[in-house]
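Collaboration report, partner site 2.

Our partner group contributed sequences for two proteins of shared interest, and the home lab folded both. The records are reproduced in the order in which they were received, starting with the first partner submission.
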Amino acid sequence: MKRVAALATLIGLAACQAPGPISIPGLTRAPQSADEALEAYYRTLPDDFYPVAPAGPPLPAADKALSRILVASCLDEEKGDSAALRAASALPADLFLMIGDNVYGDRDGPAYATNEAELDELRESFSDLAARDDFKALRQSHPMMVAWDDHDYGMNDGGRSFPFRRLAERIHERFWGLANQDVGAWPGTYYARTFGPEGQRTQIIMLDTRFFRSDLTPTDAYNAKGKERYMPSADPKQDMLGNDQWTWLENQLQKPADLRLIVSSIQVIPTVHGWEAWSMLPEEQQRLYGLVNETAANGVVFVSGDRHTAFLYRQDGILPYPAYEITASSLNVAFATETDEKDAHQIGAGYPPENFGSLDIDWDAGTVTLAIRGNQGEIIQETTDKFR
């Protein structure tokens, strides 16, 4: 009963974002913010509160040169077996990047509106994912790195204003086995790893575009083409990554690497649509490009998901070399069979049916081939980037 009473007080506290009287084990003074009160409460939760993914192979050795990386997003844990996930599991690869909407744990509405400060629905969704045979096959077949997006964060299009983000982070990191790694020591879910010897080094940078992000500017023409949900804003108070993550990213880009994948759950290059994307915060988008230029970071390729359609992009003039992006989405949440969306920097047509992506690296030629693959693993479209 004491836990229920404390939780009820915390829900009210989170809703108004102001301190209030509450007694929580481990907190000896009145909380100064809703975040502080919730953090103290979450420290009291037992280990078996959190779902855990099936065991999988470790990441490649630090000196192993990677030749193929798979990437995917948007897996509805309540739908039946995913042919795309099965095909990805069967395709030989050194690494699998699962980059957001890895479950859909917010269908019942925002947790703060449904009195779910313990994120019951999100935890149930991860438990369901862990029990899926197609997901078990993936875990057994490929080492994985992960990022989150809004639906596995716990709030549709949510950012730093989500009151239960600290528990969402705990759920994410414990499920994916990150809690005792470097990423588990700081707020947010961003982290990076580098693989391969000198001359064949691949750096994977997993960004967190949720925990620190400001609210976006709502559209003034709901569902209008190009302004579906949001509009670009140059408000200097709006931020994508937060100060600590920006500083961390600058440091990462200065580390030696030959090929760098900057993984963002939302799209980086395109500007044609009004859904979530870096283009909704154009100052932040330019800051990202500027940081790559200022650090002289070579070999950058952008990787994204979210859109329920796969795309390839190339843009000249924003980096010291042509900038490429692959968007891989979705594994089993397809909304259409074709799309007429066409960004100025888009390569070919978008591909809405179930899909995943691959990046094949040819170290002798200094190239990486970005490919959109259908749910049988077949190549739908590809382009090659000369990164050296």
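Second partner submission, folded after the first:
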Amino acid sequence: MDETYIRVGGKWQYWFRAVDKHGQLIAFMLSDRRNANAAYRFSRKAVKAMSTYPPSSITRDKLASYSRAIRRLQNEGLLPNDVVHRTSKYLNNIIEADHGALKRVIRPTRGFQTMKTAAVTLNGFETMRMIRRGHCIQRKRQAAGEVRLVNQLFGLAA
């Protein structure tokens, strides 16, 4: 789990992202705050996305908000108590490197004017990057896997 800064309407906003150990995107969220409530909302979203395969460890940077969010999820029973919670900037390199690639895609847009347009555009960027990497396709490259991914991310009827 990690977050990066995105400029929206002349102000810095936070783009939270989570990937698994293979670099596949689990969840993402745009927020105007980087506090315990935002970390909790994002962590809850990521844990629910991985409900069939709960994580054995969570690696994040040293942001204190994540510790409180993870404890809250464990108290609510959404996250097992035996999950290893690691804070290391070196173990988080997969997602840190991915931030740079995402920002290279965002740079030509010349910024976003509103949170709504930023969230929709960033969701589209993330979806296209997942399709390009083959993260939505199980065995063969078929349109059905891509349609399923778009439906899952955007809630559209296929």
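Feedback sent to the partner group on the second submission included the following. The radius of gyration is 16 Å. DSSP finds five helices and five strands in the chain.
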